[in-house]
Specification:
The protein is mainly alpha-helical. Helices cover 53% and strands 1% of the residues. It is flat, with a radius of gyration of 50 Å.
Length: 414
Amino acid sequence: QLGYVMQRLGKEKEAQTVYNSVLKSKPSDIGLVAVASNNLLTINRDQNIFDSKKRLKAATAEGLELKLTSTQRNQIARNQALLAMFTAQVDLCKQLVQQLDSSIIPDKDLIIAGVLAKSGKYTDAVEQLEKDKSPTNLLIAAQVLLSAGEVKSAVERLVSLPKEWKFRHGVLSTLVSLYLTLDNRPAAANLLKEATEFNMKKKTSTPAEMAIVWRKTAEFHLSSGEPAVAAQSLEEMLKVNSDLRTLAQLVLAYAKFDLNKAMQAAKKLPPFDEDSLSVDINVLEESAFTMGKNLKRAPITPKTPKKDEGEGLVQKKNKKKKKKRLPKNYNPNVEPDPERWLPRRERTGLKYLPGQKRIRKDKRKGEKFTGAQGTAAGQSETFDYSGKVGASKEPAKASPQPEALPGPRQQKRG
């Protein structure tokens, strides 16, 4: 009961904590569990669908026929149909709606229209709503059509409303904005004119409601370049409620087509207070930091050069420019390598890919000659000159070697 009271007061988070604490205690009464689960389901609405399905399973358990009243069971069945509507399950939602009692649940058509609109079947949803052409159904049909992007059809539904509904502030402002999106300003002007005439003839309308309609009408005509019509609305508004804002708007409207009336109306305005117009610039600069960067500038003082005790003014030392150091093999006539700043592995002349093992050549072994590629099998002897060159050349004669001289020991023996 405490959770229900908190929920009725609009404190849904507190009520949710109460319901969860009751369910965590695992009560033995299945009726209590069903009621708490159903209330949590209503708090979730179209959010947290997984938790809603879990709560609905507990609220529709077996054996609740004797624990709950018929009204409670119908409300749980309605919430089950609404959950099917939020999940866009058209067939299941229709089956559940057919099982509802029309005397207890009067919004069966609205649930079916909602599931059709949720699944993207906007025309079927509008047809379902237009079976009962009540003002509420027409407003819902207009909302469905606007969500589908069909502005003209939505305007037609709103125009077909009774005058008591059409000239309400919310519907009237919606129609004016829709006419402006369709670039139909004359229709919006006629609608506002009809609204002002209806409010003047209507005895139940309060002065505050009439003042709002007249003010919006005047603002519309001023923006559309019709100051005379706007002045009429402001005059009627001044008769109901005279304030400085309305009088200032009337002066601006008169100034666009009749200067004499503007001057006469301007005399009714209070005089300007010159003391309120005096502004201190220093105060504004000091408070400028509240709007962003501090715009107050410090006074610029000229810099004086330092003085030396013995020689007077200290002279600045001239810095010597360093000579550019060029490489030893630099040739000004040759353009430098454009890839000199790149690492060696990224230069185009690299014969191996980065990441692969570099194959080193063994300089002790001679290069292997594999022969010409693509020659026929019989042409190998024609292009092999090794035998011909060996046969034509004679073997080279051995060069005479000088005789070895005897060593010092052999000379002594001799």
